[in-house]
Design brief:
Distance between the termini: 26 Å
Helix content: over 70%
Number of strands: 0
Strand content: under 5%
Structural class: mainly alpha
Number of domains: 1
Number of helices: 3
Shape: flat
Order of helices and strands: HHH
């Protein structure tokens, strides 16, 4: 695959964001597992993968709607995490979660 002009610069800027997304995803997974148990974490992971598949054109519309319906309640976990960060004076982590939400919306719709 040939590289387009600007790909190297895009990679330089997006690599740290991807690392942040992975790090926050891990933290969020721990929070979900602690709060709701292993079964809840497995449900969230299944929904996340279904949403990614749909975005990549590997799913059907019904599965996509189901993924969105099932994913919505778990967005609350991230909201509670953001509130916790605000209470602790960690505006840097709040900004990170906003970036993660934006990246997630771009990746999963």
């Amino acid at each position: 695959m040939s590289r387009r002009p600007g790909d190297q610069e895009l990679e330089r800027f997006s690599a740290p964001l991807r690392a942040d997304v992975r790090r926050l995803g891990s933290v969020l997974g721990e929070v979900i597992a602690e709060a709701g148990g292993k079964d809840l974490l497995e449900d969230v992971e299944r929904i996340r993968k279904a949403a990614i598949d749909l975005r990549a054109g590997r799913g059907d519309a019904a599965a996509g709607l189901l993924a969105v319906d099932l994913r919505n309640p778990y967005v609350d976990a991230l909201s509670f995490l953001q509130l916790r960060f605000l209470r602790e004076g960690r505006a840097d982590l709040v900004r990170l979660t906003i970036g993660v939400i934006a990246a997630g919306l771009q990746n999963t719709g």
